[in-house]
Design a protein that fits this description.
The protein has 138 residues and is mostly helical. The chain has four helices and two strands.
């Protein structure tokens, strides 16, 4: 049994691309699969790091990253299992997962950056979040 792929071959270049237009549900499904792959990769890396580390305590940023990855994976898993009976709740959980995946991304990239760059990145993240809330409100 083969798993469905999220990439599509481009006839002109032959390189995989994610769908960005067309049916919104298929696009959300494609992004959900990418995020699941990211979560599995991150959790594997975290487990390896934990096993190799002699320190028993990690920086709090790592704990926030771990929490975000956990929320992403559990939201997507639950949304896939309840989508037949509760499609609205499943779609909401997928959107929550995408938000937390973006947050995990920001946590990962700003971990080793100077304070001024962290402030800029988190300002961008906050503005994006507010824009999403505002656009979905109307």
């Amino acid at each position: 049994m083969s798993l469905p792929t999220i990439a599509q071959s481009s006839p002109s270049h032959g390189q995989p691309t994610l769908p960005v237009s067309g049916n919104g549900d298929k696009n959300l499904e494609a992004w959900a699969m990418v995020i699941i792959a990211f979560c599995l990769e991150a959790s594997t890396q975290i487990a390896i790091l934990s096993a190799q580390s002699s320190e028993s305590h990690f920086h709090p940023v790592f704990h926030m990253f771990y929490f975000a990855i956990t929320v992403v994976f559990s939201s997507l898993a639950v949304s896939k299992l309840i989508c037949a009976m509760h499609p609205v709740a499943a779609k909401l959980l997928e959107k929550i997962a995408i938000f937390f995946a973006a947050t995990a991304f920001f946590l990962a990239i700003t971990n080793a950056t100077p304070l001024w760059l962290k402030c800029i990145c988190w300002t961008i993240n906050s503005i994006s979040f507010l824009a999403i809330l505002n656009c979905n409100r109307y």
